[in-house]
Design a protein that fits this description.
7 helices; 0% strand; globular
Amino acid sequence: MSELLAFAELGFRHITDPAGADHVLFLLVLAAVFRRRDWREALWVVSAFTAGHSVTLLLTVVGALSLPASLVEFLIPVTIVATGVANILGRGEHGAPRSGRSRVLLVAAFGLVHGAGFATYLRSLFVERIAVPLFGFNLGLEVGQLAVLGAAGLLFAAMDAVLARLGGAGRWAPVRLRTVSVSAAVTLVAARWAVERSPW
């Protein structure tokens, strides 16, 4: 049990560590289109991300999949940029669709990339047994994700309230303005990382 908790703690710290800010930024830009009442749609999208990164985490750790670390580190900010651009260019009152099959599948694919990033860190900690460390680490990642998304939800609700009091920005609803603002800021940061980490 202590081994499980130890790896769960490692997973939680990995997702919430400022050094792993790329994963946190992906969660922020992913959640940027959601409102408090959209929790069902958010659950579908986050579950898709979880499924994606869990599959790659398992395949990479057991040696069935091997991707160059430099390529993975480049692709992670690319997924953030792609999500941010989709949010900004989205149509309708609130921007990009919050759910829908295409968004869920896209997020699952991006989860595959992030899972490879998690696995690079986790693989260096294994000796022989992998079942308990893998489960514990993944459990910690999920708890960390929920913590990040919970904090993001509170921040976004506060932003919406402030923007509503200020009257939004003309024809833009407060939620749309917040979605674009958050997505643009995160996209700029991730674009810089992508350029810095380019393997070419």
